[in-house]
Every structure is written in C-alpha cells, then in structure tokens.
Amino acid sequence: MQEVYKTLYCDVAVVGGGTGGCAAAIEAARKGMHTILFERGTTLGGLATNGYVPQIAGNIEGICQEFAEELEKVGQLRKPDPSKNYYRNPSFEPEYGKIILEDMLFKAGSRIVYDSIFINAEMDGSNINCLYFYTKAGILRCKAKVYIDATGDGDVAAMAGVPFEVGGQDFAGLNQSTTQGSRWAGANLPKYLAAADAWKKEQIAKGVENPLPMVYVLEEEAIARGEMTRHVCNRHGDFFRVRIPNTPDDNASYVTFSFHSYYCHNTDPEDITRQILEQHQLMKQFHAFLKNHVPGFENLRLVGMGSIPGSRDSRRIFGEYMLKSSDVCGGVKFEDGIARFPEMFDAHHPTSDYWVFQRHMHMPVPVGSAVIEEEEHGQCCTANMHPFGIPAGLPARSNPRDYCEIPYRSLLPQVVDNLLCAGRCCSSEFHANGAMRIIGPAMGTGHAAGLAAAIAVNEKVRPRDIPGTRVRQLLIDEGVPLDKPTSGYWAELREMEGDLVVTKGDFAAIRPSKKVDMKDRMHLADI
C-alpha cells in the first residue's frame, strides 16, 4: 500500500455521508464527540440528493424531523397536502438538501472530509484499529474509538471481517432492481392529466373494465414499433414522479426514478456499469417517447441525472438480531426498538418489469397484525412474481394501520466490537431491508448509532454492552416519540373505518366505509 501521508484522530468516525450517516455524525457531535464524517463524493445526502430521490418516505421523527423542518424554513420542502400539520412523504429540492445537511453537521460540530474513498480496515483482534482512505493527496488514515458504517453497502463491515449476505433465498442472491434518478422540466402536467382522464373515460365508455393507464398503453405501442426496449411506467399508476418545491404546474420540474434494471448484482462493478448504461439508453428512449406521443410532454427536457447508481440493496450484515420479514409484516415491536417503519413492503422486484414491486411475503404461521390471504397461492403468486419457486405458507402483507420497530441489536455487527451500522446495511432479511433503507428509518438508525457511539466512548464500553432499552429511552428523552403510536397520517389510517383488502398493486389497503378526502392515496389506490 502507498505510504500514509496523514493520520486523523477522533472519537467517532462515520463513513458515508448519506442521510443515515449524516444523522449519526450530527448526534455523535452533539453529544460532545470529536466526530469526522468521511464521504467519497463532494456533497451530502447520498441517494436522497445525489441520486435524485428527494422524498422523505417513512416515519419522520428525531433528526429526520429536524431535517424536514430546516428545509421547510427556507421554502425548500413541498407537502403533498399543505393543509395537514404533519409531514407525509414530503418532497424537497435535492440541491438545497445538500446544503441543509452540511449546515446541520457544522452546527453540531462534526468535521467533514470529502473526496475520501474508503479502501481498507486494519484490525486489532476484534476491534478496528484504523481505516484507510484514498484521497487526492494520497492515503489518509483515521484512528477512532468507535466507527459507524453508513456506506449503504456495508463496505467497512465487510473489510473488517463482519459476515454478511447479499440478496435473498427466494431470488437466488439477486439484488432488488436498481433505477436511474433523473430530473426533468418543461412538462405540462395539467394537460397530461386531463388527457389521461379523458382517455380513461373513453375506455370505460367502450366497455373496458379497469382500463390500463393511457401512457402504459402508448408505451406498449412504442415497444411494438421498436422505439423502446421495455416499459418505464407502472400498469397500476402510470409513471412515478415527485414534484419538488417552487415549480408551477405549467412548467413542472420533477424527478422520476422508473428507469429500472433487473437481475442485478450490486457489488459487481461490471454489472453496475451494465445497469447504468442500460438505464441511460432507456432514459433516452423514454424522453423521445414522451415528447412525440404523450400530450403535455411536447417541450420536455432532461436537466439532470443522478450522479450515483440507484442501488437499493447490496450487503446486509449479520448482526446481533436480524430483522425478519415477518417482523415487518406483523408489526412486531421490540423492547430495544430505536426506529419505526409504518409502510408497506418496499421491495422492488429483482426480475419483473411486469410487477415492478413485491409487496408481500409468505408466512407459514400468522404473526401479529399481518394481513393474510386465505388461499396459499394468492392473486399475485404467478410465475412472473416468483420465478424461482413459490414459498410455502400464506401470502401476507403489512397492515396499513400498524408499524414495526427496528431493534438496536440490528445495528450491532457480529465479530467486530467497536463498529455500528446505520441505514440499509443493517442486519435484516431481504424483504425486511426496506424498513431500513428509506430516508425516515435510515436517519432513525443513524440517530441511534450516533447516540450509542457517544455512550461507548464516554463510558469506555463496547456498543454491544449498552442495553438497547437504554438507547431507546435516551432517544425518547430527546423527543423521539418511540413510546407513542405513530401519529399524523398513520393515526388517520388507524382511525379510518373500513375493511382491509389486497389491492391490484399487491399490498394491503383500507377500503373506506365512508367517503374519505385524502390527497395521498397510497393505501387507497387500485382497490
């Protein structure tokens, strides 16, 4: 190895400047730790900002709540329903999000070292002695008392010898599909929505029951003509788009993440390159398709592409506890629960552009509040959905009226004593990983990791020796309401009268028993 040109010393070293890593560094610094955050790029936020995924999904509390509030203060946050006094999937200006995160770290007292690529971990028994980074000046070394892996890919954990898994049993080791984030402008959304609505009414008048979205049908025609390789849009709800703040309807600037690649291996650089090349071509095809064939997009222009690959999962550590898919599905709570996930299964299908998502698991024995189909092979259990075989048990979905918790033990890697993990590389089964990778719970795990790291340094103990119940209580004392049911939108769902049903989109929803005026229809759509 090249000679080390400099050594930095600190109490807590955080590797990875995504939202989870930022939350970890903020919390550790606030607790008086000399903290350094190492980021391989030159801006913070990870996929949320650099990958153009600027929508704060999941439960928003703790440092994640502060992030949303700071964005709103400067007019860079957009609520789907401004009349509500809570945050529910708010979008934000990704470029400004980078600045807000920097400000939050600076105020907390954390250092940032950009353009530092982690390359190796030197071990001393079961402890990390130091980490090495490649930089423009040469090899940089960092010696800390506690380390936090927030790389998303579990790079530090893997180099330190922590056992890990990639992919899952039911998809033979494949990762979830990946997507290229992108930013567009010049669309006339009202014109498009009016055309799509008129087309749907026309199809119904012709006797078509449950017509597909207009844009999906137009894509079918483009694929038949050889103009597109495959669908970008979802047959259940056209194309996914996130409106960002300060953009008028008649010249909408938004981001879309639907340029999927399938059969992915996200720790293989050659396959990552294949995905990126494929997504760029699909983006080019989709741009021409929209401009030439879809009303409202005649003046569409591409104004930005995500600068990092849109991977959803890769390495997942083996921790003191591996969060199970049945935990997420059944709304399981833990005495050491330090973050919460109230959403449906967030697994992007590894192989199928027909299904796009997999919102269910198979449960031999019902657990907790899971929504169970009566038949062993339910409506979504096709060969396309389960290409390697259908698991035993009944199809089950997470209950929209409930939530699961992420235990502190899932942040604790086996084998290595002075390391914590935050975000999607924490310990979980394949389908449970969505409970950790989206922005809300990723920042929640980072918040808890930063707090535990500070305790470990102050008291000269291993993170695994800190009771998770203590970490949970300290988070509650800081104002994270882990001792109360999820509030806001989730409270509205709990109070909504109606029956639980399985939708065409393969998730459990509430069929209201009376008219419900809710602009966010995630749990009402496609019934």
Give the integer mean of the pLDDT values.
Answer: 93
Helix content: 25-40%
Question: How many helical elements?
Answer: 12
Can you name the CATH architecture of the domain at 4-168 and 411-464?
A: 3-Layer(bba) Sandwich
**How much beta, percentage-wise?**
15-25%
Q: Based on DSSP secondary structure assignment, what is the total number of beta strands?
A: 24
Low-confidence stretches: 518-527
CATH class of the domain at 4-168 and 411-464: Alpha Beta
N-end to C-end Cα span? 59 Å
Shape: globular
Description:
With 527 residues, the protein is of the alpha+beta class. Among the domains are: 4-168 and 411-464, FAD/NAD(P)-binding domain (3-Layer(bba) Sandwich); 178-305, no CATH class. The chain has helices spanning 19-30, 63-73, 94-108, 155-159, 189-205, 214-224, 269-293, 325-330, 434-437, 439-459, 468-477, 489-495; strands at residues 4-15, 35-38, 77-78, 91-92, 111-113, 117-124, 127-135, 138-149, 164-166, 178-187, 242-243, 252-261, 301-305, 315-317, 337-341, 347-348, 357-358, 361-363, 371-372, 394-397, 404-407, 419-421, 498-502, 508-512. Strands 1, 2, 5, 6, 7, 8 and 22 form a 7-stranded mixed beta sheet that branches. A 4-stranded antiparallel beta sheet has the order 11-12-10-13. α1 packs parallel to α3 and α10 crosses α11. The longest helix has 25 residues, at 269-293. The model is unreliable at 518-527 (pLDDT under 50).
